[in-house]
Amino acid sequence: MKIKKIKSIRRIRKDSATYNIQVADNYNYFANGVLVHNCIDDAHNVLEVESEPKRQKVLAVWDDTLSTRVNDVEVGAYVGVMQRTHSKDLTGHILEKRKDGQIDNLVHVCLPARYEKNHPHPSDTPLNFTDPRTVEGEPLDKGRHPEDSLKQLEGKLTAWGKAGQLQQRPRPKGGQIVQAGKIKIVDNYNHRLVKKMVRYWDKAASEDKSASHSVGLLMASMRDECIDYGFIVLDVVYGQWTSGERDVRMRQTAQMDGIEVEHVVEQEGGSGGKESAQNSIRKVFLGYKCSADHPSGAKDVRLEPFAGQVENNNIAMLSAPWNKKYVEALEECSVGSVTDFGDGSSGAFNWLNGLTGKGKSKVRIGVVG
């Protein structure tokens, strides 16, 4: 390949069709013998963004390839104009890196089609720019999309389409399946009104930040005398741990919960899943009440009973640092894609209400007094 310097550039005024090419993976191609580096159009395919491997592939291209393509780091800049497709899409990835101090000099401009006073990802610029709108729901550009036009556009899109393309949200406000904003936050609860407590474990084993979380969610059903809510989420422990670290955390949690809490371990399909669940019951939770649950059916369907109680203002959660992470994870749940926190919520709720097939997979270990 020969490298030739451009001697001059001149504009030719001519009405003709112009074509561009997008090449998979590296976006480079030859046009009339000239190597062209194309921009990335739609970094994420909206039909594939729920796939963890495919989403991670896009992030890897950014981190390992595109991040070094600036000729002069002093004056060069990257400009990304993107819709939101997932909380861990390219925009979310970059914002998270800034939060962790890995990226400096990031200018983030967020202009939703309708004004949201408490938008989760507001603009953050060196000029301290803020959205000039003050009325909730006010259109961004009344000249281009007045109210009637904007309503027609919104009517053509799904809840996720409106959230990502118009509101610059990775998920619909309030959530698609679980209206997490309706969960009541309480500072305390009356322990004497607790009917039963269950901590449901959805296990994973990885320290990779892109991997699934292990989640242990403690939920209680309340007696009829509790008129404000019927169920309360009391605690959520979670992390991306190795199998050894996870088992230690599970044991510690059981010791802190005490013998009045029943622990339920989700049993994945196959012999490996059964062996893992039995190992937790016989070793990790030795001396505590513990059962294995082998749920069936789609995860989003299993989440519906819990979601219905949330929608009817019958779910509360105890005020704690994990609240924000929990609510965000519930809002991410969608048809065909349920987070680990969603699994923990549905598992605990369904177990408390006898909505699982626990009779087939239950194993009890005697309680040590």
Automatic annotation (TrEMBL):
Region (Disordered): 117-146
Domain of life: Bacteria
PROSITE patterns reported for this sequence: INTEIN_C_TER
InterPro entries per record: Hint_dom_sf, Intein_C
Biased composition (Basic and acidic residues): 133-146
Name recorded for this polypeptide: Uncharacterized protein
Organism listed in the record: candidate division WWE3 bacterium RIFOXYD1_FULL_39_9
